[in-house]
Specification:
23 helices, transmembrane helix, DUF6377 domain-containing protein, transmembrane, single chain, membrane, TPR-like_helical_dom_sf
């Protein structure tokens, strides 16, 4: 919800924009006044400055029409001043109202405002005496408000739960809130009831349920683009206490940004009291993670170095083993023929690069065999899954994505290894072709298919069967490629011999 807040803010702005557009369509001043009042309510916990603007518009219209809406406007201002942290101005505004002459609807509004305002002032009072004074005033107004409501409204249950929590009867408060009829809970009410439940569970010391209902309340606030709230801030602090620093820091930043956007000054001040603590913890955690990443990086480098040494050692041992096998092969006639061929090849090798070539041929042959084995393994597992009718296993094993991916990695590794040994191969190869027939890799490739075929020929693999097996093409396709490229050569008869003589 925090990450998607812009979606909900856009929805809020669109709703406000539609209300603004309806002002010009108002049929009379009473309808226009009601639209101003709706805009005031939309902006009330979203942007207090804009909400105050529409209170002024309501006041101007009421004066022009000589409507007696002064008490309602005073309560609107007081409510806004309370949200903005201007508690003295809010109290002064309420003290101008004679509650005895208010109708029941406005009296409910007045008592609710007084109870909420004095409760907030009590929370920010600097002395115990003042705190008790304002707390008693808040309780008195709440008690006066309760008889004005019946059990067919959710506010009745919230007021009843508030009375019980004031007497520290938290479990009874939970029971009352959980008895609210579901049809009475919708929209912002969902968040308000959830917040009351979180407060009750806080009194019971049940942190898990307190966090659950704070999260539920915060979700409603974010979804309705309510910027003046406390649930997400409290949730951030509880997450900090449980060690979830990253989420606590994220939620606290969102709470601060929303409070500033709404111009809810005292809410922002309240948030700043815990902000340095969580910010410091977040920075310490980030530093620790950075240190851990550095340690892991050094360990990884060490492991890579160790692997490189092991590969070098194994390569040397393999080379020694190969020599030993060549010497032992003199004991039978079949291996004598192979030794004779190897002797002839070794006679032609004139530099260390030729030794590298012989090694890479061996490497390619082994990798090709590995791909074949993997393919055979996949097929055998596929047959096994079919015979046992294991559908889920069959679907997983039947996929060729693993083999395809490994093959692509293998070809890329081959291209990189080959070009490291013959960095000028493409230029030297194209020098053997007619100017208009030269071949270059496509963007993103190291070697094209044609270049890869003749790279294998340069390594001494001239058998089309082996080339087809390595590249996973048909024998006909390899013949076609070789013939097509040979026809582009300056000297067709000596072309492949010249490719085999390209130097690094």
């Amino acid at each position: 919800m925090v990450d998607n807040r812009k979606v909900y803010d856009n929805r809020k702005e669109q709703k406000i924009e539609r209300l603004k557009e309806s002002i010009s369509l108002a049929g009379n001043d009473s309808v226009r006044y009601e639209i101003y009042n709706k805009l005031f309510r939309e902006y009330f916990n979203y942007q207090t400055d804009s909400a105050l603007h529409y209170v002024f518009l309501k006041e101007n219209l009421a004066r022009a029409k000589h409507w007696n809406y002064e008490d309602e406007l005073r309560m609107n201002r007081s409510e806004l001043f309370s949200t903005m942290g201007m508690y003295k101005e809010a109290i002064d505004m309420l003290e101008e109202i004679d509650s005895k002459r208010l109708p029941t609807r406005q009296l409910k509004y007045y008592y609710a405002m007084c109870s909420s305002l004095y409760g907030l002032v009590a929370g920010y009072s600097s002395t115990l005496k003042e705190r008790e004074k304002y707390y008693q005033a808040s309780t008195s107004y709440r008690d006066s408000l309760l008889p004005l409501y019946t059990p067919d409204t959710e506010f009745y249950y919230r007021l009843k739960a508030g009375q019980l929590m004031a007497r520290k009867s938290y479990q009874e408060a939970v029971d009352v809130l959980q008895r609210v009829p579901p049809e009475l809970i919708e929209g912002h009410t969902v968040g308000l009831v959830a917040f009351d439940l979180s407060t009750a569970y806080e009194g019971l010391g049940n942190v898990e349920l307190e966090m659950y209902y704070l999260a539920k309340s915060a979700i409603v606030d974010l979804k309705l683009s309510i910027k003046e709230y406390i649930a997400l801030h409290k949730l951030a602090y509880l997450l900090y206490q449980k060690g979830d620093i990253e989420r606590a820091y994220k939620y606290l930043n969102r709470s601060m940004a929303d409070a500033v956007f709404c111009n809810a000054r005292f809410r922002a001040i309240s948030i700043t009291q815990s902000y340095p603590i969580i910010d410091r913890a977040y920075k310490v955690k980030s530093a620790q993670e950075q240190h851990l990443r550095q340690i892991l990086m050094f360990i990884s480098l060490g492991v890579m170095l160790l692997l490189a040494v092991m590969v070098l050692y194994i390569s040397r041992q393999m080379h020694k083993l190969k020599i030993a096998r060549l010497e032992l092969s003199n004991m039978n006639e079949q291996l004598q023929h192979v030794n004779k061929q190897l002797y002839q090849v070794n006679q032609e090798l004139s530099s260390a690069n030729m030794i590298k070539q012989e090694y890479i041929v061996h490497y390619l042959d082994q990798c090709t065999m590995y791909l074949d084995k993997m393919e055979n393994y996949r097929r055998s597992l596929e047959n096994l899954s079919i015979s046992k009718d294991l559908k889920n296993l069959f679907k997983a094993i039947k996929s060729e994505s693993f083999i395809t991916e490994e093959r692509e990695k293998f070809y890329k590794s081959f291209d990189e290894t080959f070009l490291s040994l013959f960095p000028h191969f493409v230029e030297s190869f194209n020098a053997l072709l007619r100017d208009e027939e030269r071949i270059y890799p496509h963007p993103g490739e190291l070697l094209s298919t044609e270049l890869r075929i003749f790279a294998l020929i340069r390594l001494g693999i001239t058998d089309s069967n082996k080339i087809a097996r390595f590249l996973r093409y048909s024998l006909t396709t390899i013949y076609n490629y070789r013939s097509k490229v040979r026809n582009k050569a300056k000297d067709k008869t000596q072309f492949e011999i010249q490719v085999g003589q390209i130097q690094s």
